[in-house]
Amino acid sequence: MIKRNRGKSLAMMAMAWLLLLAACGGGGSEPASTQMPTGSEAAAEAPLTKVKIQLKWVPQAQFAGIFVAKEKGFYEQEGLDVEIIPGGPDVVIEQQVVNGAADIGVTSFDSLLVNRDNGLPLVSVAQLIQKSSYRFVADKASGIDEPAKMKGKKVGMWTGSQQFQVLAFMEKNGLDPKKDVELVKQGFTMDQFFNKQLDVAVSTIYNEYHVVLESGVKEDDLYVYDFEDAGVGMLEDTLVVKDDWLKKNRETAVKAIRATMKGWNYAIANQPESVDIIMKAVTEGSTTKEHQATMLMEMAKLVKPEGFTEAQVGSFVDEAVQRTVDISLKYGLIKKEPDLAVAVNKTILADAAKP
């Protein structure tokens, strides 16, 4: 009697064990819910780090490297979820970064110097445009065939963070920007120039200058003043961050710069595809594909000038940096010599270049 009960108990236990194995998937494997992901799976499942990049202007090929890096997944590959914030004529990029509305800002290097001189804790971590793109344009009918003849005229000037080269140009040519000319806030179109609301308009070689030509105006019908040739050409688009943000988020900064430089090199090498990417971001009806193609062609010359390698894109050329400082001091844009060891951090780009 005892033997029969024991056998029945063993059989029931065996049946219960088989049912348990079946419920767990059999074969002695762990339940799916308790299996640990592999290293690559864990990385893929890790939340992306959010980063906000503030543009100095509206979406266009001026920022091709940033838009391409996002579209091609270069930021995501670095574990970043990047939000691109458009700029405009009234957006002060430095304030956006200092106030925490953006983590990284695209501003002009001269504007960085001015804002640091005024006490803002900002540092540049990559230099995009390597020389001045600025041009003054005037209709030949105006008779302004030399800077001195701008006296008493309406001269366009962008604001926000982009006025400093204009002020230096005036000072260099003996014009008091507060008394000798009527500085007019210029919008991000050339309408004021076309409508004769400006005698002299500011433009960049990659954008507004070509807007004028595309309107049917011939180069021979314009007086053009190249800021570089005028001796007041300063470094422009640079990537800035707040000092304390960089200290707390250095690895994130390195990743963002690595992806952005990869985006720029890709955009320069693959311009037709990159223009298509840009056209997805521009305000509908604000531009044409042909204009953006021209813009990217001109930007490529400024970001990767002749003699530059892909590895040099984003780098600081000491001579150009010092020239920008010297012009800023000479024409009173800044009051004191900046500490470039603090204003410029070359180590972020250097670390971004490491495999």
Task: Give an overview of the whole structure.
It is built from 16 helices and ten strands. The model is unreliable at 1-43 (pLDDT under 50). It is of the alpha/beta class. It has a five-stranded mixed sheet with strand order 2-1-3-10-4. The longest helix is centred in the N-terminal third of the chain and has 22 residues, at 2-23.
**How many helical elements?**
16
- Secondary-structure element pattern, one letter each: HHEHHEHEHEEEHEHEHEEHHHHHHH
Report strand order across the widest sheet.
2-1-3-10-4
Low-confidence stretches: 1-43
Total strand segments: 10
Distance between the termini: 76 Å
Instruction: Kindly estimate the percentage of residues that lie in beta strands according to DSSP.
Output: 5-15%
Helix % is 40-55%
Q: Could you describe the largest sheet, including whether it forms a barrel? A: 5 strands, mixed
Overall spatial form? globular
Radius of gyration: 28 Å
User: pLDDT average, as an integer?
Assistant: 89
* Secondary-structure content class: alpha/beta
Topology:
Blueprint (H helix, E strand, L loop, with lengths): L1 H22 L15 H7 L3 E6 L9 H8 L2 H4 L2 E6 L7 H6 L5 E5 H9 L4 E6 L6 E6 L14 E4 L6 H9 L9 E4 L5 H4 L5 E5 L3 H7 L7 E5 L10 E6 H6 L1 H20 L1 H11 L7 H15 L14 H13 L9 H4 L3 H6 L3
Parallel strand pairs: 1-2, 1-3, 6-7
Antiparallel strand pairs: 3-10, 4-10, 5-8, 5-9
Helix pairs in contact: 3-11, 3-12, 6-14, 11-12, 12-13
